[in-house]
Amino acid sequence: MIRVAIGRLLSAVPVLAIVSLISFGLMRLIPGDPAAAIAGISATPAQLAQLRVDLGLDQPLLVQLLRYYEGLVQGDLGRSLLLGKGVFAATMERLPVTIGLSLYALVLTLIIGIASGIIAALRQNSLVDQAAMMFAMIGISVPSFFLGLIMIIVFAVHLGWLPTGGYVNFFDDPMGWLRSTTMPAISLALLQAGLLARITRSSMLEVLRQDYIRTARAKGLPQRQVILKHALANALIPIVTVVGIIVSLLISGAVVTEALFSLPGMGQLLTQAVLNRDYPMVQGGLLLVTTFLVMVNILVDVLYAVIDPRVRYE
Amino acid sequence: MSDVVVAGVLDGAEDIAPRRIHPARATLARLFRHRLFVTGLVLFGVIAVIAALAPWITDIDPNRLSMRNKFLPPGGDWIFGTDNFGRSLWARTVWGAQLSMTIGASVVALNAVFGTLIGAAAGYFRRLDNMLMRVNDALMAFPAILLAIAVTSVLGPSTLNVILALGIVYIPRTARIVRSSVIVLREMEYVQAAVAAGAGHWRILRHHILPNAMAPMIVQLSFLFAYAVLSEATLSFLGVGAVPPTPTWGNIMAEGRDYMRDAPWIITIPGVALMITVMGLNLLGDGLRDVLDPRLRIQQ
What we know:
The complex is a heterodimer of chains A (314) and B (300).
Chain A: H1 2-28, H2 34-39, H3 45-55, H4 61-73, H5 87-122, H6 127-141, H7 144-158, H8 174-208, H9 211-218, H10 223-260, H11 266-275, H12 279-307, H13 309-312
Helix pairs in contact in A: 1-12, 5-6, 5-8, 5-10, 6-8, 7-8, 7-10, 8-10, 9-10, 10-11, 10-12, 11-12
Chain B: H1 2-10, H2 23-33, H3 35-52, H4 54-57, H5 89-124, H6 126-141, H7 144-155, H8 159-186, H9 189-196, H10 201-238, H11 249-256, H12 265-292, H13 296-299
Helix pairs in contact in B: 3-5, 3-12, 5-6, 5-8, 5-10, 5-12, 6-8, 7-8, 8-10, 9-10, 10-11, 10-12, 11-12
């Protein structure tokens, strides 16, 4: 297991090196003068010159690159132009909102996705199966922001059950947090729940065909025990591998959901940064989020090795 | 394919002369018997035809303002009603369909070309594999929408840049799929035989490997079309896609957001159109996967 962990960490090094290089290169891809693009048309030549110095754009590219990595090694990701504070600090402020929302959505995803996948597989080709797969198909086809808008119209505007947006801190008012994040979490979870239901169903169907299931049934074990102990435990193995993908989709989806429900999370921070041409924030934030995702994927791989001994001996 | 032949031989059926059916026609026949595929084809087909015939379907300018007619509900002279500027939602949705389809098809084309090139190069030439795949992994490590937003913000919001951004986001995913097929095929005996017969790399790739790597890629491309349409709508909804007043579904919905209490149709109509398109493509992809590449059914 430790060998798997070390191996995966080592293989993440070149990936992260290239990720950081892409993040660095992104700002240099701005057509024309990046300083002019950031400062806008009203900037005076003196302001432009100052901005170039501040961003280090007056230096040769190689020097810029070295300074960038020097900063990264020291944990300095640059300063946000819009907020006037460090990218790392700004991200850390917003991170709890996104993590809370994503965890809530992840729980919904797992419950809805796995449950409907198992039920569909157990009653293959029945009406229940078709209904569950129809639901999954709708889940992967409805854009989350459309579902979010429809929910706002129905539950916030017409029924008045939930607020249209805004955020309440969990530690100030847990019920208020639940009220403010339920619609966002549902709209965020739907796509992943649909994907997971489809994967769970086919994984479960595959396992149910195996000989050891027939053996378990033949020796007279009750259906419940066959399903929960023999089938599910094995069907869940491939599902663990997609948790990494699901987390990535959740983070991507959170960008849209936070913008829609005006939640002050990472997604909103980065969207605002993009719309306001706050390139250092975009560059640093993108790098941070991606590094986080790479770490999540390593964790998933290690977890995979823990629950599936075959992986360890490969 | 070989299974069929073997089965025929084992049946000792050589006296029952089998009718020669072209493999492509057999595949098509199986596709058209696949209920979900046909459903998907119809859903997607309707939107695609509307998109292609946009100028003939509506002669109303999608950007023509008519303040006297703003916020008209669907029905009457205005089939889909009007928006906050009195623009025809019918015209805007129809032209939005054309834009969505153009962007989706362009992203698919970019992927088909560059995804195949990169995937084939990485899978076939071992020396290139490591380098290409590390860059690939890095690009895939970014959350898709975030990378697309960042790229469009750097390049500037326009239809072309949205296509480029979505290309950059999705080509690595296609390349990875092509690569994994090519790696398996490269080791096949018939490929080794071609090598022994003195065929060059280009000939082997073109005649022996790529045709057999097509099935998973076609499946991938149909899902990719769906992602591209969805991502484009998301980008323009967030305000980093094609610039308003360009009638994209995402733009229409973003503008309709402020009026959703009194004029919910402004967001509902393009939203439903988007849903039909994506669902049609997903069903189409499911059908293609079931028929062309049954092995994948288990993984997805």
